[in-house]
């Protein structure tokens, strides 16, 4: 990454690496330069799309074959004829051979093939920079119980019998560490989040879509897999039981899927820094 950033800064300063130079929204292919293949990343401007437009020029005095490929689409092979080649050799002028509008995650591949006795191929790749990345946030999730049934022991006609009731516990709050994949280029961003919740008794897993606010606050909603107390399958409603059987014996903990909403905070970025 450091190598790419250094290369990008040098290119933006107008220095050429190999046969391709990026300068002032121009991509210049100079077949007279030394051939060194390379790959670099340029910035993608989401708010001002006009800054993503580049004109492609060639200085091709040797008449080499130049092909352009945008993503997976091959553009027509560009080759300057001999008469124009002789003119370029004398004046060393730039000939416009095309233009390109970079979008997010666009890759332009420039291939130069020599026509000498010993043919060689040089490949240059120019990509737009993406701001989609993984970040870690810390917060809390509220899990909502969709099934709150549980068994209790009640006395009926002098006998202890199993009765099904609704638990008063409608939700559970759990501290979490969340892993978010989203585009942090906008103030309001959308992405995907997964995470883990931990308390003194269990570990829960969460997954769902998320919204980032100001690059520091992440709101998530989805489903969580966690332990929940449910009726023990060894007992049934109305069953007569011994007085030694407690309410804890009538229920058991199993992993269940329930909806959740959560909030988490990104701590690796200063919210007050512009």
UniProtKB/TrEMBL annotation:
Keywords: Signal. Residues 1-18 form the signal peptide. The keyword Signal applies. This is Outer membrane protein beta-barrel domain-containing protein.
């Amino acid at each position: 990454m450091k190598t790419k950033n250094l290369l990008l800064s040098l290119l933006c300063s107008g220095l050429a690496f190999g046969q391709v130079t990026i300068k002032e929204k121009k991509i210049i292919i100079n077949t007279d330069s030394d051939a060194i293949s390379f790959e670099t990343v340029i910035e993608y401007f989401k708010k001002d799309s006009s800054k993503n437009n580049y004109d492609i020029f060639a200085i091709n005095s040797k008449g080499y074959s130049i092909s352009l490929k945008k993503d997976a689409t091959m553009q027509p092979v560009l080759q300057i004829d001999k008469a124009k080649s002789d003119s370029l050799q004398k004046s060393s002028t730039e000939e416009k051979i095309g233009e390109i509008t970079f979008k997010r995650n666009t890759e332009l591949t420039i291939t130069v093939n020599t026509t000498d006795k010993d043919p060689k191929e040089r490949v240059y790749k120019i990509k737009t920079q993406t701001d989609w990345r993984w970040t870690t946030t810390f917060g809390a999730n509220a899990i909502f119980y969709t099934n709150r049934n549980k068994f209790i022991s009640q006395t009926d006609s002098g006998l202890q019998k199993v009765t099904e009731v609704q638990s008063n516990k409608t939700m559970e709050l759990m501290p979490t560490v969340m892993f978010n994949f989203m585009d942090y280029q906008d103030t309001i961003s959308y992405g995907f989040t997964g995470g883990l919740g931990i308390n003194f008794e269990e570990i829960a897993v969460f997954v769902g879509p998320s919204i980032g606010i100001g690059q520091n606050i992440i709101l998530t909603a989805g489903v969580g897999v966690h332990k929940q107390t449910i009726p023990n399958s060894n007992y049934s409603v109305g069953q007569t039981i011994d007085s030694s059987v407690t309410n804890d014996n009538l229920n058991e903990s199993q992993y269940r899927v329930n909806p959740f909403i959560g909030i988490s905070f990104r701590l690796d970025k200063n919210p007050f820094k512009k």
